[in-house]
Amino acid sequence: MFESKLPNLGTSIFSQMTALANQYQAINLSQGFPEFDAPELLKKQLNHYVLEGVNQYAPSSGIAKLQQQIAALIARKYHNNINYEQQVTVTSGATEALFVAIQALVKEGDEVVVFDPAYDSYQPAIELAGGRSVHVALHAPDYKIDWQAVADVITDKTRVIIINTPHNPSGKIFKTEDINALKALVAEHDLYVISDEVYEHITFDGALHLSALTDSELFARSFVISSFGKTFHSTGWKMGYCVAPAQLMVEFRKIHQYVTFSSFTPAQHALADMLELEPEHVDELSHFYQQKRDLLSEALAQSRFKILPSEGTYFLLLDYSDVSDLDDVEFCHWLVEQAGVAAVPLSVFYNSASSDKVIRLCFAKNDDTLKRAAEILCQL
C-alpha cells in the first residue's frame, strides 16, 4: 500500500478560498496576489527577450546581469557589498528558495523553530528533510515574539530558526530588539537562520525593514530569501532569489541544481533591466501600498471589525469578535457564501489552532475593489 510522506497535508486554504470566491462570485481578498498588472517596462522587456530568442537555459545560479543588479540593490538598501557570483542564486520563486535552504540545512532528527502564524510551506519542507518543526505561537493583537519562550524550546537538536519579516499574515516587522535577541540565540546555540523577506520593500509609516543582510554577524549564519513576484506585481512568473555567505551558498546550489536547475531565462533579463532602468519602482513600493492600507482601513473605520496594525506586507488583519461567534474557518466560509467577500482565517497558519477571532484581507487590489469590499463589510 502506498504511504504518503505528508499524510496530514491537504489542499491549501488559499486554493480553497479562491475556489469558493469563484463559485460565489465574491470579491477575493483572500489569496495574496495583486489584482493589478506588472510594470510596463518589465512586460516590454520580457517580450523583447522572448522575440530575440533568449529562450534557453540560464546558468544555474542566474544570469550575471541579474545577479549584479541584485547585489547593487542590496548595497543600496542594506549597505552590504556582497559577491554576486558566489552569494546570489536566482530561483523559481521564493518558495523554491525556502525549500532548498531548508534541505541544505536540516538533517534527520534536527529541530527547526517556526513562528506561528507561519507560511504554510515551511513545515512540509522541514518534514521532507527529516526534521521536526517546533512552533512558537504569536497572538493577537500585537503578535510580539517572546524571545524567552523561544529560548525555552531550544534543545541540542535545534538547528535552524525561520523568521519572516515583514510578517505574513500579521503585518508585523522586526525591531532592533528582535534582531539582537535572535543574534544572541544564534551565537549561544550555534544555530542557522532562514530569513523570509519576500515583503522587504513594503513597510509603512517610515519604518525601515531590518534585513538579516544589515547585520554582519547574523548574515554570516543566514539564508535570506526574496521575491520578485511580490516586488514587481508578477507572482505568476515565480521568480525569486536567495542570498547567503559563500560557504552556505555552495550547499544551496548543490540542491538547487536538482530542483529546477535554472529559472525562466527571459524573465531574468527583463528583471535585470527593470532593476537597472527603473530603480524608483522599489523605492516607491511602500508608499504605493501604504495608500491602499490606509484606504481600506479608513473605509472600515465605521464597521464592527477591530482593525489590527499593519506595519508591512499587503495584508490587513481584522478582529471579528463583535460580528460573529463562529470560529474563524466557519466565519470565512459564511463571509464568502453569504456576504460575498473572501478572506483567510488566521487559525490555519498555526500548528495548534488559535482561538483568536481574526481574519486576513489582502489589499493588493484596485481601489474600487477595496471600496466595494469595505462597503459590504461595514454592513455586517
Automatic annotation (TrEMBL):
Q: Which residues form the Aminotransferase class I/classII large domain?
A: 26-376
Q: Name one GO molecular function term.
A: transaminase activity
Q: Which residues form the signal peptide?
A: none
Co-factor(s)? pyridoxal 5'-phosphate
InterPro entries this protein is in?
Aminotransferase_I/II_large, Kynurenine-oxoglutarate_AT, PyrdxlP-dep_Trfase, PyrdxlP-dep_Trfase_major, PyrdxlP-dep_Trfase_small
Keyword annotations from UniProtKB, A to Z: Aminotransferase, Pyridoxal phosphate, Transferase
CDD domains cross-referenced by the UniProt entry:
AAT_like
UniProt KW Ribonucleoprotein keyword? no
Q: Which PANTHER family match?
A: FI04487P
Protein's recorded name: Aminotransferase
Source species, please? Pseudoalteromonas gelatinilytica
